[in-house]
Write a structure and sequence with these properties.
Length: 426
């Protein structure tokens, strides 16, 4: 049955329509009940902050919503599992992303759908509207265009820009790999990683794993293992090209980790049987994974398994990353989200999963949650995420010079983050 048929489909339509179409709206954050309020909010009072900002652009962070505002921007060319459905049809997804920003990290977000597939035109539009925002979350833009778009905008703008479809999966899966290696007594530098898929998320995962210290990465696309004998590789795939030709069968021999970022059936039982003891097997294709956990378990009872789905343990869910990465980046006014900030997010996630889990998490999920093979990474509704991950990202931005602030107290910042979502509330 099609996703557009049945009771759930109608429920989804009713949810999005409701009494007020859509999922987001603006709100007034200052008193606006009198003539005096009107004179302050608009003319003549508004001229004062306008002139202050003209004199010092940084004052925009003091007097406007820029300090807490993300632009969620897409052209609709790679929407979830739906593909190129166009900018207008992507709008419900972008509104959904705005909700996630607000609910998980208290960041406001506007969705912007840009009607172009031309890289230069898309970048020009984003550059032109960038002064509105404190950060730009690029969303659902197909590869390989997404690489060039992100690169250009990161270079052109002085606010954080991140294509979450690439880096979110990398950050979360890296945290899961860190903890899986801990459980199986492996060293990151020694593991052999096979990445099945060579799109935006796969390339970003490979880059982050390398930065973490992984030395052996074999990447497989729809035509096989990526190696130097092939003449059909773009510049991004060439980053992971092996010196010699290798088959998929050989790639899996002795592999410690496989990360599936492709489609159902791209690897199977015979492949994972070739892996080392206690294999780390992430089947992240969504909604249908490369292999379902029960099939993995039958072939490899010793496996540590993660998927991209919420109905199995160890969901690699981007919501564990992007709200808190942007929160930390904006709060220290970082100019870029660099590799060190992403690694800091991964390490913070991994460390948080190893801590004692609050009782409310176990109650919410209806089972006792403790660190182990079926709990490698935190749950999305863990209120500590905003504190630990955002603070780690902010600290990395300060240390690496992405932020030039010298008066930032991380301890006080963590206290303010806890108050923002009431971490200690029942």
């Amino acid at each position: 049955m099609s996703i557009r048929e049945g009771a759930f489909a109608q429920e989804a339509r009713d949810y999005h329509e409701g009494d007020r179409p859509g999922k987001i709206a603006t709100e007034v954050t200052k008193s606006f009940h009198s003539q005096k309020d009107l004179s302050l909010a608009y003319t003549p009072g508004v001229a004062v902050p306008c002139l202050d900002i003209e004199e010092n652009p940084d004052e925009a962070y003091r007097y406007t919503a820029k300090a807490n505002l993300i632009g969620v921007i897409s052209n609709g060319t790679a929407v979830l599992g739906l593909g190129d459905i166009g900018p207008l049809a992507s709008k419900p997804v972008m509104e959904g992303k705005a909700i996630l920003f607000k609910k998980f990290s208290d960041l406001d977000a506007y969705d912007i759908e840009v009607d172009t597939k031309d890289i230069t035109r898309f970048c020009n539009v984003v550059e032109a509207i960038a002064p509105t925002f404190g950060g730009i979350n690029l969303e659902d833009i197909k590869a390989p265009e997404c690489f060039e778009i992100e690169k250009r905008l990161v270079e052109a703008l002085d606010i954080p820009v991140m294509h979450d479809d690439q880096h979110g999966t990398a950050v979360i899966s890296a945290a899961a790999i860190m903890n899986a290696c801990r459980l199986t007594e492996r060293q990151i530098s020694d593991i052999r990683v096979v990445i099945v898929g060579a799109g935006a998320a796969a390339i970003s995962c490979g880059r982050l794993y390398r930065h973490m210290g992984v030395k052996t990465i074999i990447m497989i696309d729809s035509k096989g293992v990526i190696h130097n004998g092939r003449d059909d590789l773009n510049e991004y795939k060439r980053e992971f090209s092996l010196q010699v030709e290798t088959t998929q069968e050989d790639a899996f021999v002795g592999a410690d980790v496989v990360v599936g970022l492709s489609r159902p059936g791209t690897f199977g039982v015979e492949d994972i049987k070739r892996m080392s003891a206690d294999p780390i097997i992430f089947t992240l294709a969504n909604p249908t994974p490369e292999m379902f956990p029960e099939d993995v378990r039958k072939a490899r009872p010793d496996a540590i398994i993660a998927t991209g789905r919420s109905d199995f343990p160890n969901q690699v869910n981007n919501v564990l990353g992007f709200p808190f990465i942007f929160r930390g980046a904006l709060d220290v006014r970082a100019r870029k989200i660099n590799m060190e900030m992403k690694v800091a997010a991964s390490e913070a996630l991994a460390a948080l999963a190893r801590q004692e889990v609050p009782e409310y998490i176990s109650e919410l999920y209806g089972t006792e949650v403790t660190f182990g093979r079926e709990y490698l990474i935190p749950k999305p509704f863990d209120k500590r995420l905003i504190v630990e991950v955002s603070a780690a990202v902010a600290a990395a931005a300060l240390v690496t010079g992405s932020s030039s602030r010298s008066d930032f107290d991380i301890t006080q910042y963590k206290e303010s983050l806890a108050k923002r979502v009431c971490v200690d509330c029942d």
